[in-house]
Task: structure prediction
Amino acid sequence: MSANTKVTPRENVWRDLPRNLWSSIFRHPLPSSELGQAQTSFTNFFLHIHPVKVNRHTLKATYTFGLGLISLFLFIALTVSGVLLMFYYVPSTTQAYDRMLDLRGSVAFGTFLRNMHRWGAHAMVAAVFLHMCRVFLTGSYKKPREFNWVLGVVLFLLTMFSSFTGYLLPWDQLAFWAITVGTAIAGYAPFVGDKIKFLMLGDTQVGQEALLRFYVLHVVVLPMVMTLMIALHFWRIRKDGGLSRPPEADIAPGTEAMSVQVIASPAPKQSFGLMGIVRGPFTKVGNVPENTVSAWPHLLMAELLVFVLTIAVLLVVSLLFHAPLEEPVNVMHPPNPAKAPWYFLGLQELVSYSAFWGGVGIPGIEVLLLILAPYLERKPGGTGRWFAKERLLPNTLFVTFAVVNIILIIIGTLFRGPNWEFVLPW
Amino acid sequence: MSHPTPTAPAETGERRHFLAWVSSFALAGSAIISALANFVFLKPRATYGAPSRFSIGRPDAFPSGARIAIEQRRICVAREGNQVAVISTTCTHLGCIIGVADTGFACPCHGSRYDQDGNVTAGPAPSPLPWYQVKLAPNGDLEVDTNIQIKPGTYLNI
Result:
């Protein structure tokens, strides 16, 4: 070593340790320039799901109401509270109910966590449904977002199935009879109904096998499938050009609309540069003024706000209202009336008129119509606006379906008493 | 030894296309069969719950004219003189346990009512109550098999 080589003084190692450690984890300081803001999306694993720039229209609260984000944050809250509850839960018909009492009596925060999980699950079913309404009523599923809508419908069904499988786990009267009734509805499917029911319950009746099966589905299978589907759902939002918006939202205010002609160059034969692969609405050509802002901080702050609000409401509700826990399962004494979970009470109401049509026919047609909707409504236009005039017919049909389902759920929940006879809730 | 004449390009393409098609078919087929195998695995060969074939004791335990419900087994034993029959007490509507009433059966969940033979008389139940096979076992006990449904109205003569 030559004498004039600079040796870092020993004490600097320690003095600089915190800074070195920090800068090895976070590649850039908090952004102070546009470049820095862009780098957050590029270099941070947790932020790289964001685009660098986001259209102003996407951040309008009255456009999305943050319903997709609320669904995601509820999913995360449910995962966390669910994993914590798993530490004390045993999926056994002899122990499950006692564990519920233990949560109440001897586990720190036990009641609170159970409340969070219960209300979060109900809220998630509602949030995902409302999110679906938003996407439909703003015409957001139109080309090129058809398949992401299909993924969304699948996520909606998975959400309901997750909630349904969780319903059995407390092993109280409410759980037992709701699942007895719910799986009986599934049993009305033609040809395969009984087989599906047997496969789901692992037996002819709800018992230990059903509890174990529902538990495995609820804590492993469904969350894993949902996580994958959510990742796909988000990936496609980016690849489909961000959230849907009307064409005029792409033009910055105060600038004149100018048409940009993109001349397609012949596709390269051998290798692809980035611009050879990139296509669609996120290709920026020339120096067109954009109506965008940086994702950092604008999108992040919006997300943080939705997160804080969602969690705050969930915490307050969980502090104020306790999750129901009825008497332990008594196979001999069904409650009168025995009711499925509320989101299936519309179906149960229909089942009381016609078993096949209520349990299988109508819900089957509804799901099929939902999945096919973007492939049936091919007329462009009306995307990115609530209740667009051009989409009067599809919107009217959708609202009618939604309202009828909601009314059936309300009737089944509030207006049905013993023997499923009509009662007034007041 | 001379090399074989190279095949014409079109022919090679066709063969490759054929091979690709066959192997894709085989792979996809294996994947589908493996996926279906999961359902075979998930369908229990033996259930751990209540057995479907069981003894309900001597015929003498059921006096003539009595309709005795065995709730644990979800059945009702009906005896008329020398004749015995076993009727399911699982409601055909949504699977609740129904009770024996004066006029037949009544479901406490959603108000379905059945007559003495299990025919629906009121409520949302879509089908009559099934009758199960009952036999006299060699030891003189009545043996019921809830896996075997028989024609309603068929009694066992004892």
